[in-house]
From TrEMBL:
Keywords: Cytoplasm. It comes from the Eukaryota. It is found in: Cytoplasm. Pfam families: I_LWEQ. It comes from Ameca splendens. This is Histidine permease. The keyword Cytoplasm applies. Residues 51-292 form the I/LWEQ domain. Transmembrane segments: none annotated.
Length: 306
């Protein structure tokens, strides 16, 4: 936007320069200046907070709807986990049943922690709105602080989405069709979404608020629960792999040597790919934090001031 404004200023000066000269006055053209002004308008519209396009009531209702949708998503996820657990007990035996039970039990604990997080977030939001901040009603407060409200909505969506995706991954693992690594990644995503929700809530909260401390405690509970999911998943993966130990007894020396060479090639390929994916992940996280900070305005104290 700054660059567009500077370009517009340059075009305006150029046009004025033409108008000052008698020789060029007749050919003076304002098309470039008009184009520069259009660019400013387009850029400003893109930067305009989306909440301003909504009526006060609509934005306030959207917060309630999204928190309710998140709660429903978590309840649905918890019910699916219970269903998977019952199904696994009916058909699986031995190590597979033990692994599935441990993973699904840790997922159940995580869902309970997320429920507590959502309840704490709702209570803190009520505290923030009731503290006044110059707003006459809850809906007016949400509309007045639209950037903060949109950050809250985005964070709530992320938590609900994370719970749903994690249960999908757990379902595939229990069926023996999914990857243990995917379940671990989903758990880390939920921890990140939780941090996002806490950050969005803290912006306007009183640092001495009891409900803020409760939310932070609930956040730590989610983090611990996600760590338990990751640990149980790693342990389960090791157990499953230990029961599937390769049998080399029937292979010849030549066959073993060939497979050894193939394994070395695969290891090198995977190491190269791992390094590239780590670099890509770093860039994605950097871009995500940049966009989240700018688009959702978590660092802003009061809108329309300063």
């Amino acid at each position: 936007l700054s660059k567009s404004v500077k370009a517009c200023g340059s075009e305006a000066l150029a046009l004025l320069g033409q108008m000052k000269q008698r020789d060029s006055l007749a050919t003076a053209n304002d098309n470039k200046l008009r184009a520069a002004l259009e660019t400013i308008l387009t850029t400003a519209e893109k930067l305009r907070p989306r909440g301003l396009e909504l009526q006060q009531g609509e934005l306030g209702d959207l917060v309630e709807q999204e928190m309710a949708a998140t709660s429903a998503a978590v309840e649905s996820a918890a019910a699916r986990i219970e269903e998977m657990l019952n199904k696994s007990r009916a058909v699986d035996t031995g190590v597979k049943m033990e692994v599935n039970e441990r993973i699904l039990a840790s997922c159940t604990e995580l869902m309970q922690a997320i429920k507590e997080l959502i309840l704490s977030s709702k209570d803190l939001q009520r505290d923030i709105v009731e503290s006044g901040r110059g707003a006459a009603s809850m809906k007016e407060f949400y509309a007045k602080n639209s950037r903060w409200t949109e950050g809250l909505i985005s964070a709530s969506k992320a938590v609900g989405w994370g719970a749903t995706v994690m249960v999908d991954a757990a379902d595939m693992v229990v069926q023996g069709k999914g990857k243990f690594e995917e379940l671990m990644v989903c758990s880390h995503e939920i921890a990140a979404s939780t941090a996002q929700l806490v950050a969005a809530s803290k912006v306007k909260a009183d640092k001495d608020s009891a409900n803020l401390h409760r939310l932070q405690q609930a956040s730590r509970g989610v983090t611990q629960a996600t760590a338990t999911v990751v640990a149980s998943t790693k342990s389960g993966k090791s157990q499953i792999e230990d029961t599937e130990t390769m049998d080399f007894s029937s292979m010849t020396l030549t066959q073993i040597k060939r497979q050894e060479m193939d394994a070395q090639v695969t290891v090198l390929e995977l190491e190269t790919r791992l390094q590239k994916e780590r670099e890509r992940l770093g860039e994605l996280r950097k871009k995500h934090y940049e966009l989240a900070g700018v688009a959702e305005g978590w660092g802003e104290e009061e809108e329309g001031t300063g």
